[in-house]
Specification:
- By secondary structure, this protein is an alpha/beta fold.
- The protein contains 17 helices and 15 strands.
- The protein has helices at residues 11-22, 60-69, 82-87, 89-110, 148-167, 191-200, 220-231, 251-262, 273-276, 292-298, 306-322, 330-341, 354-368, 383-388, 402-410, 437-444, 454-467; strands spanning 2-6, 26-31, 50-54, 72-75, 113-119, 171-176, 179-180, 205-208, 214-216, 218-219, 240-243, 248-250, 268-271, 286-287, 344-346.
- The strands form 4 sheets. Strands 11-6-5-4-1-2-3-15 form an 8-stranded parallel β-sheet, with helices on both faces.
- Strand 1 (2-6), helix 1 (11-22) and strand 2 (26-31) form a beta-alpha-beta unit.
- Helix 2 (60-69) packs across helix 4 (89-110).
- The termini are far apart.
């Protein structure tokens, strides 16, 4: 099967691409890198069944060719994160609605299978203890920009279901509840990566509001299993599904748990919403999904616990910190070069301000001595990307080092008995560790085998690192 992933260089999209390739499918990713990052898919660039296009999903000419070539479209491209939504409501609304319009219009012409990615935000200010797909959706006033994201996603859902009813376009809608895991950034307000980053750096862990708001979290590997099962089933067409975890926790208790697992001395500080976001900001006191519909359709149950989620994020960030390079160096330009020459290439259609943009890119490459884009390929990437490349984090591949993996087993005295993502071993064609939890859980249904003393091992390494400072 040929899959097209819009927004595929993002956190969830990169994990979907990885698993689809692992299953033997062809994958094409299109992403304008507004919130996605090349480094999320850099390890896939050598795979013969993988393509990456640096362009906007709103580029109708480029998207027409990509949709036509695909069998299934996973439409993830969107503005994400509360901070981004509050600060850039125009971008949020236009990105979410226009992109979905283009995807659905093109998919309908060829009756292509589409999965639309929505959000738990659409439930808004509902006072239900848990949210089911048929519940009323209650949003706040339009003077609060915070609700623009939820409203735009509701329009996406209405539009998708309208295409299903009027044009029989085979669509499925998934509402994701706090999907978390490696490669997710706290830059746009995602709470677990933000807490973990603060804890690893021994900075205050900042809880917005009173900390009593309750949430559930699901590991990205569990979410990927559910998403692909829904995409491959004809019985899910025309339906809406919640995808989320089953462990409910308050944000205050989450901060305490992160502090315990990371082994930090960071204090927990409560910050009023008005200071964290904007005056009059409204949050949902509870965001807990009813996933019975998903469970009945797929016999689905999340396999990874909240503690495992936090440890995975901490391991990823700890490894990433050791290889972090300051931005605005020659490496930033290297990312742009890699986007064109190292696996992610431009769309073949025209770009806005094509000539001026090419001059800027060529000048940049001459200045740094890095290889430039092939002029025969047309526009190197969208103009919007060119202005962002100077401030983007460098493209680096982050994966668990063998030494760290062994530390989890040797120091903790744990000897895993089944497939485990922390076991040191040779990587496969995707650059993954052998026996990764995603591939084994999909094929065999077995749970991942996080070492029983992983928490102690993690604290041991951090304490050892402090002692050598």
């Amino acid at each position: 099967m040929k899959y097209l992933l819009t927004g595929g260089a993002g956190f969830i999209g990169s994990h979907l691409a990885e698993e689809l390739l692992n299953r033997g499918h062809e994958v094409c990713v299109v992403d304008d890198l507004s919130t996605g990052q090349i480094r999320n898919v850099q390890h896939l660039k050598g795979h013969r069944a993988f393509r990456c296009i640096v362009d906007s999903v709103t580029n109708r000419q480029a998207m027409a060719e990509l949709v036509d070539d695909a069998d299934i479209i996973l439409h993830l491209a969107a503005a994400v994160g509360v901070h981004l939504v509050v600060e850039s409501p125009i971008r949020t609304i236009e990105t979410n609605i226009k992109g979905t319009e283009v995807v659905l219009e093109l998919a309908a012409k060829k009756t292509k299978r589409v999965v639309i990615f929505s959000t738990s935000e659409v439930y808004g200010k509902s006072t239900q203890p848990i949210f089911s797909e048929s519940d009323d959706l209650v949003l706040g006033p339009t003077i609060r920009s915070r609700w623009s994201y939820a409203a735009s996603k509701m329009i996406d859902e209405f539009l998708a279901l309208a295409y299903f009813k009027e044009k029989t376009t085979p669509v499925t809608i998934v509402r994701l509840f706090n999907t978390v895991g490696p490669r997710q950034t706290g830059r746009y307000g995602m709470v677990i990566p933000r807490f973990v980053e603060q804890a690893l750096n021994d900075r205050p862990i900042t809880v917005y509001g009173n900390g009593q708001q309750s949430r559930t979290f699901i590991h990205v590997h569990d979410a990927v299993r559910a998403i692909l099962a829904l995409a491959e089933s004809d019985g899910t067409i025309g339906e809406v599904f919640n995808i989320g975890g089953t462990e409910t926790i308050s944000i205050g208790a989450l901060a305490t748990l992160v502090k315990e697992l990371v082994g930090t001395t960071s204090p927990i500080v409560f910050v009023p919403y008005d200071q964290a976001y904007e005056a009059g900001f409204e949050d949902m006191e509870s965001r807990v999904p009813d996933i019975r519909k998903l469970q009945e359709q797929l016999t689905f149950e999340p396999q990874l616990t909240l503690r495992q989620i936090i440890l995975d994020v901490a391991e990823y960030q700890e490894t990433s910190m050791t290889g972090r390079v300051k931005p605005m160096s020659a490496t930033d330009t290297e990312q742009s070069s890699q986007a064109v020459d190292g696996g992610c290439r431009p769309a073949t259609g025209d770009c806005e301000d094509r000539g001026a943009h090419r001059d800027r890119v060529v000048e940049m490459h001459h200045a740094t001595g890095l290889p430039g884009p092939d002029s025969s390929r047309g526009c190197s990437m969208s103009a919007a990307v060119s202005t962002r490349k100077r401030r983007r984090e460098p493209s680096t591949r982050h994966q668990l080092k063998a030494g760290t993996a062994l530390a989890l087993q040797v120091v903790a005295g744990a000897r895993p008995t089944g497939p485990c993502r922390h076991r040191a071993g040779s990587g496969d064609a995707l650059g993954r560790r052998s026996g990764s939890p995603l591939s084994t859980s999909v094929s065999t249904g077995r749970n991942s085998c996080m070492p029983s003393s992983a928490v102690s091992a993690f604290k041991y390494r951090r304490a050892a690192a402090r002692s050598t400072k």
